[in-house]
Amino acid sequence: MNRAVVIGLDGAAWHLLQPLMEKGVMPRLARLRAEGADGILRSTVPTYTPPAWTSAFTGVNPGRHGIYGFIAGHAQHRSPQLVHSGLIKAPAIWRMANEQGARAGIYNVPITFPPRPIDGWMVSGMMTPGYDAHRSGFASWDRGSNADDLERRILEWAPDYVLDLHANYETDWRDAALAERAIASLRQRHRVLSELLELDPPDVIFSVLETPDRLQHVYYRYIDPADDMYGSPGAMAVRGALERCFKAIDDIVGLLHDYAGEDGGVLVCSDHGFTAWEVSVHLNALLERWGYLKLKGAGKLMQSGVARALVPVAKKVLPRKVARDAKGATFAAIDWAATRAFASPIPQQGIFVNLKGRDEFGTVEASDLGSIKDEIAQRFIDLAGPDGAPVTDKVYRSEEVFQGDAVDGAPDLLPVLRDHRFELDDELFHREPYTDVSHLPRGVHHPDGIIVVAGTGVDADGAVEGSVMDVTPTLLYQAGLDVPDGLDGSVLTNAFTRDRLEQNPLRIGSRVDAERGDEASPYSADEEALIEESLRGLGYL
Fold first, then answer.
1. CB atoms < 10 A from the CB of 178, how many?
2. Which of the four pLDDT bands, split at 50, 70 and 90, describes residue 516?
3. Helix runs in 261-368, H state only
4. Residue 443 to residue 421: CA distance in whole angstroms
5. Which of 40, 346, 347, 349 has its CA 20 to 30 A from that of 67?
6. Residues 371, 375, 380, 381: what is their CA dihedral angle, to the nearest 10 degrees?
7. What whole-number distance in Å separates Cα of residue 442 and Cα of residue 217?
8. Are β-strands 351-353 and 341-343 bridged in parallel, bridged antiparallel, or unpaired?
9. In angstroms, how far apart are the furthest CA atoms of the chain?
10. Which residues, 6+ apart, have CB-to-CB distance to 70 below 8 Å?
11. What is this structure's pTM?
């Protein structure tokens, strides 16, 4: 068995990282890329953190693990549930490793709260409560007195430990404060990881740094050298802090690379890439215009310019608990009896047909589902943007991208618009379908992420192209472990030399059963409000 390490860089994209490497900001990543096989890692559909990282650490598509966004549910659910680890319906990398006697270290991976009891340690990442002073329940450990002992140590190593970097795309772009907070959190992560690796060295590590995603949501156009805003005064004002952030990320890359050692394996990857956000597309406004969604009379009154102007003000002044319920309450303005289709929550980037027998207020017969999907898909193919040009690259039907026993939570249609620069939302009270946001430096997700495979037996001239589902099987192969039968992903064999593949042939092991998690929500009402506030700051709600 060899040490094998995943270094996850949330949202990382080569066109943003390569200039930083050339400038000397990220020498350790540059070294790994030079010594390893590299290429593009495709994200899931939808191209969002929860389905993508869950596919990365399970090796299966969302139709099998059941995670499609940050919320389990849609507009017809009065109190939709925040996703958590108990809702994952597929076995994860830590279970696959533990079944073969390998200890696992899982660090800061999204959707791992509540942390699972494993042979090793787990420190949960995004969707972990505790943005304020109260931090507990974020770690598990099979050594020491109990998990509280590990949490106590982490809080000694890093007082005020940042569980997830909070960003607000509406305001944080104005100065470097977010970047400075990011540097502080990365220093904490470096210290905590250093201590964990010394305290209890695992055989297999799966780690994620959320920082690139947070910075790029807020400062994207300031980071991309090809963008017109790259040389703007706003960009120049934050450039130094942003480069220090990426240098701090690179220090952690180096830490984990050193830990893997000469005989170990390293896999650097991202769950998705990034691009500039040009237009916000109000999906429900389109569906209303096309006759698939109907608002009640009071709802139509909210489409006035005066009413719309109050929305951003309300977001700032409403107390947390009120703001948390406000958006859900607006969906009461939908006339469900006259509605045949409606927008999914934003991170799912899709459309639900209002199906009888599945949805509480369903109006569409199952026999009509296919024809309605075809009708709406054609509407998107024919759709012109604000500039009069076509905006739709492709419309996925759910059955084209999801397979498995957990497809019930998936949207029926998933349009991809203008190379992902047009982002769908689920807001209701818009008359016009488009809002131009290209004057702001914000970024949005793109499916082209990064992959580097480095270590013993890797072909340094190898070109790799794969899916996020390939991360887990490739990590297991690098560790010298069996790859369980039945995964959707596969080992990225193009990354390895012929000699390595002949001397260490891929071994397919027996299937691993999924863990039985508690599907009940682990969050209090206050914790849900804090997490939703953080998601809203990134434009996810």
1. 27
2. confident
3. 283-289, 297-301, 305-317, 320-330
4. 8
5. 40
6. 90
7. 5
8. antiparallel
9. 71
10. 48, 49, 50, 82, 83, 127, 345, 347, 535, 540, 541
11. 0.94
User: Strand pairing partners for 282?
Assistant: 425
Q: Which amino acid is at 231?
A: G
The DSSP code for 168 is -
The per-residue pLDDT for range 162-214, each reduced to its tens digit, is 999 999 999 999 999 999 999 999 999 999 999 999 999 999 999 999 999 99
Distance CA 273, CA 7 (A): 15
Secondary structure (DSSP) of 44-108: -SS-SHHHHHHHHHH-S-HHHH---SSEES-TT-SSPEEP-GGG--S--HHHHHHTTT--EEEEE
Reported for 178-182, long-range contacts at CB under 8 A and 24+ positions apart, including other chains, are: 178/214, 178/215, 178/218, 178/219, 179/215, 179/219, 179/238, 179/241, 179/242, 179/244, 179/245, 180/241, 182/211, 182/214, 182/215, 182/245, 182/248
CA gap 512, 278 in Å, rounded: 43
SS3 assignment, position 130: coil
Give the whole-angstrom CA distance, residue 152 versus residue 276.
41
SS3 282: strand
Q: How far apart are CA 193 and CA 257, in angstroms?
A: 12
Element (H, E) at 194: helix 177-199
Token pair in block for residue 492: 């990225």
User: Which among 23, 21, 41 is positioned nearest to 33, based on CA atoms?
Assistant: 21
